[in-house]
Specification:
Radius of gyration: 12 Å
Number of strands: 8
Order of helices and strands: EEEEEEEE
Largest sheet: 4 strands, mixed
Oligomer: single chain
Distance between the termini: 13 Å
C-alpha cells in the first residue's frame, strides 16, 4: 500500500501526519510518498495538516495496487489499479 502527499506551495512548511486506524504511519512533506503494509479490509485513514484534521473510511483490496493521494482540503483519494 502506498500513500502520497500531493504538491502544494500553500502548506509546504507543515508536515502532514498520516495515521491508519489511529496508528501513526508517517509524516509527509509535499510530493513525498510512503509505502506500508495493511491487511485487506476496512480501515480508517486520517491526516492532520495545519488546521485540517481529515479522515475517511477506505477498503484495502487484496490483489490490487492500493494507492491513495492525500491533499489539502481533506482529500483522501483512491488511485487503485486492478
Amino acid at each position: 500500500m502506498t500513500v502520497y502527499r500531493g504538491p502544494s506551495s500553500l502548506d509546504s512548511i507543515f508536515p502532514m501526519t498520516f495515521a491508519v486506524d489511529g496508528r501513526l504511519v508517517a509524516q509527509l512533506q509535499p510530493n513525498q510518498k510512503c509505502s506500508f503494509e495493511a491487511a485487506a479490509g476496512d480501515h480508517r485513514f486520517q491526516y492532520e495538516l495545519g488546521v485540517y484534521d481529515c479522515s475517511a473510511n477506505v477498503r484495502v483490496e487484496s490483489g490490487k495496487t492500493n494507492v491513495y493521494r492525500l491533499a489539502q482540503g481533506c482529500v483522501i483519494e483512491s488511485k487503485n489499479q486492478p
